[in-house]
Amino acid sequence: DNAVKYSTRAIDIDAELLQDGGNLLVRVTDHGVGIPTAELKRIFRRFYRVPLRSAMNIKGTGLGLFLVNSIARRHGGDAFAASAGLGKGATITIRLPRIVT
After folding, report:
1. Is the distance from CB of 95 to CB of 72 less than 8 angstroms?
2. Can you give the pLDDT at residue 94?
3. Is the CA virtual torsion 55, 56, 58, 60 positive or negative?
């Protein structure tokens, strides 16, 4: 949802499922407004929204990524973000342990 909401031009989103050792990674990359480096860890806090002027009119509660990370942690994983900076999109990755039965 965030990848769509924070896209500034034609919506262009990539989703990947990767294996990294004993983990599975779900990676979603957009080409939207990006995230300042100082905000990358904060975006997973409850009710936190990056204070960007370009995002002032975008509706949201700041709970989405908090919930993503909380659910991942309940399953033994986590979530993290990367961005090359403002205007350069963002990547959100969910890392979960791979369980072989």
Report:
1. yes
2. 98
3. positive
